[in-house]
Amino acid sequence: MIKLLRFLKPYQTLLVFIVLLAIAQVAANLYLPNLMSDIVNNGIAQFDTNYIRQTGVIMVVVAIGGTLCTVVGIFFASQVATSMVQTIRGELFKKVERFSLHEFDTISTASLITRTTNDTTQVQQLMVMMLSMLITAPITLVVGVILALDQDVSLAWILLAIMPILVGVIVIAASRAIPLFMVMQAKLDKLNLILDENLTGVRVIRAFNRIDQEEQRFDVANLEVTDVAIRVNQLIASLMPVMMLMISLSQVAIIWFGSQRVGAGHLQIGAMFAFMQYALQILFSLLMVALLFIMIPRAEASAARITEVLEMQPEITDPEEAKEPTGLRGVVEFQDVTFSYKGAEAPALSNITFSAQPGKVTAIIGGTGAGKSTLVNLIPRFYDIDSGHILVDGVETREMSQERLRSKIGFVPQKAVLFSGTINENLRYGKQDATEEEIRHAADIAQAAEFITKMPEGFDSQIAQGGTNVSGGQMQRLSIARALVRKPEIYVFDDTFSALDFKTDARLRAALKGETRDSTVLIVAQRVSTVIDADQIIVLDEGRISGLGTHRELMKTCPVYRGIVTSQLSATEIAEEAA
């Protein structure tokens, strides 16, 4: 929690003002018992109506002043806490934006959502209470004890008897609450994970008729959170009656023993009432501290989870002195590249060497798990390689800034991703200043203009979250159009054409030839028909290159490629291609 306090730095002036308001509030609250004692001892005892009236007016003014200080203090405390947590959320989001895919594997998406929402809310609630009570409660406690002793030392034993009991109750409650709050946040992560999986995988769940089973899985996770929450709330609920019982007993004891001292003439009745008011303020300040200590464990657990994200160093960072490519445009080179996923027993790619040149199409084909998508994910540096070199325009990708590197690439992922908003907004995602003409031209090339124009509002039609109101093929064509709008030096199509029918696939690839004639094109594909006309075809088998060349060359030299072709094309089609 202490590490997060650095986000309070911009509000130093306001914090000083809040402290002054808190001191004024405490002064008002502690001054009122003295005034009440004067009324009882002087005004009532001497039947002085004017004195009672004048002192009463002062009491009202002091009470109103103290109330105003409280209200204004809480208002500014809420503002500071809310602004601080807003900054923390922003920093969390910025940090997560810079994470590599490895960091996302380390901390799940569901956990990151919980940390950005629920955990920051816990910190915010604690900060409001801390700014409202952390100053007033200790001052009230210390000064209240001094003023109470000034009224009558003999009754101090009541406070000395009650206060250790209250402190003990607070310590026991806090020690039991800390592990429960830690468990609760972990259970919330699991609950969010199940919810996220069910929302994103709703089609699969319904297709396999697993609705009832998923409801049961969610109920189990929900019940686990509920059980922990009930245990925590029971702990807090049991704390409050004990605290109130102690406060009530202290009042009874003060009146009982105080009245005896008043009867013996050792204590004035006004002083007894003032002592009782001070005792109440002391004990209520302890109660506020108790509430604060109950909230601290959960907020501390949340703060630790937030700090873990903020202090996590991204695996992929920019070099201190980034190099700028000169001369070349769109050249991609792999030089003896080996890459392994974290914790994997064997490398996903081994000794990969090839070069992709502008104006040429490089296709990558292979069986499932051969490493095709892994290979193209290394070009924009989504992962860092174990050994070897990846060069773009003659500069190693690790020596280039990530922004500069990725600005050269138009990446169309295997799983098409669209964002909520209009089609225009989605197509401009990689180039905000794209003109209407560029948008429509890219849609024409991607074979998307036909279905876009049939939509009610054309290019201004809304895309639902996750693109659920368009088909898989339409999503892929919009993703391709988004990359085309950017006009990059390097196009990467990661199994992009698999969702398209053969006719649309052929038309799109024919249109792409003219559009990408000056760019480097890398295509990952499952279909032989998609890669058959490529300038060079890379055949991957178990993470290694088993063949490199044109279709005709590979049919003669690469058994793996020949096996893929014969599994997809008939003997007649193979003979036609050979001719």
Keywords:
single chain; 579 residues; alpha/beta; ABC transporter transmembrane region fold; Rossmann fold; 3 domains; 6-stranded mixed beta sheet; 4-stranded antiparallel beta sheet
What does this protein look like?
The chain has 579 residues and is of the alpha/beta class. 64% of the residues lie in helices and 10% in strands. The chain has three domains: 2-311, ABC transporter type 1, transmembrane domain (ABC transporter transmembrane region fold, Up-down Bundle); 325-408 and 490-508 and 517-579, 3-Layer(aba) Sandwich (Rossmann fold), CATH 3.40.50; 416-487, Rossmann fold (3-Layer(aba) Sandwich), CATH 3.40.50. The chain is built from 20 helices and twelve strands. The strands form three sheets. It has a six-stranded mixed β-sheet, with helices on both faces. Strands 2-1-4-5 form a four-stranded antiparallel β-sheet, covered by helices on one side. Strand 11 (536-541) and strand 12 form a beta hairpin. Helix 6 runs parallel beside helix 9 (269-311), helix 8 packs antiparallel against helix 9 (269-311) and helix 18 (551-557) crosses helix 19. The model has no long low-confidence stretch (mean pLDDT 84).
